[in-house]
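Deliverable D4.2, example record:
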Amino acid sequence: MTNLSHPLPLRRGAPMKNRFMLAPLTNQQSHADGTLSDVEFHWLTKRSEGGFALTMTCAAHVQKGGQAFEGQLGIWSDAHLPGLSRLAAAIRANGSLSAVQLHHGGRRSEPPLTGEPRLAPFDDAETGAAALTTAQVEQLRADFIAAAVRAERAGFDGVELHGAHGYMLCSFLDADNNHRTDGYGGSFEHRCRLLFEIVEGVRAATGPGFQLGVRISPERFGIRLAEARELARRLLAGGQLDYLDLSLWDVFKEPAEDGFAGTELIDHFVDLPRNGTALGVAGKITTAATAQKCLDRGADFVLIGRGAVLHHDFPRLAIADPAFTARPLPVSPAMLAAEGLSPAFITYMRNWKGFVSEEPA
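Output generated by the structure prediction step:
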């Protein structure tokens, strides 16, 4: 039986020293220009000190117009390199692998923050997003690849492409709305095309030891579970990824889509052939027992989000004690500050219903 403490070899680069990866978490702690702040540096390096085998940044936008949150980390300019290089070096010094999650907000981007129009794969009346031209799609592909090269130059072990949660790459997969006729919409094959072109481009532009992952989500935003499974199958089998990150919101929930009652989301993916690609799952994993259950069901590793907010050393605690359970909610602002969250991050966490107590900061 695979244990949470067991190392996990990846196809490229160094292995994960255990089965815990820090989930990419929005924290709104970067500077307005996308450069890394000291408080975000502290938040991330504290997790690398706490035993995470791979420490991943929050979503970092690859184009100026792709910003979706205040205080979002950027990787669209060489001006971001000094902070990113400092972060990569510190994470490595703490014995953790490092990755930047590459992101574009798409129809969820924020023009008031960027001064640029909101763009998406299709015209979207709800958000006012305009459809990308084919030339803009090609530029987007180039900018994702350039951001991966920038991450490698900064010293990161790899990158993850954010293809989940309704952001730009996920919107290309949207079966309900992406009816483009230029080869990047319509059929499932064409809706997946951009993601696979970026994967191929990153592999070609980076070194043989550079690690590459993809995050997908199998529900909402026009995503069909059967298509998500087929996409996962292709990504796992292609030989170009080191890991696939499944953002399930709740690992053991039943699918929301009709026709899948009595099943659990995790089981729609863990039976897929891996071909040497590691499969990770995220979604309400807040105890050592739940993390171990994910491995027992067939996942190779787990991604920890809210548990990592509550405990910078979640992996160390979970490996040491099979009965470990994260702190009950709500928690005080003082406790979060002690765990390395800045006032801005604590304010953001108040948006998570029932997470932060009403005590003053």
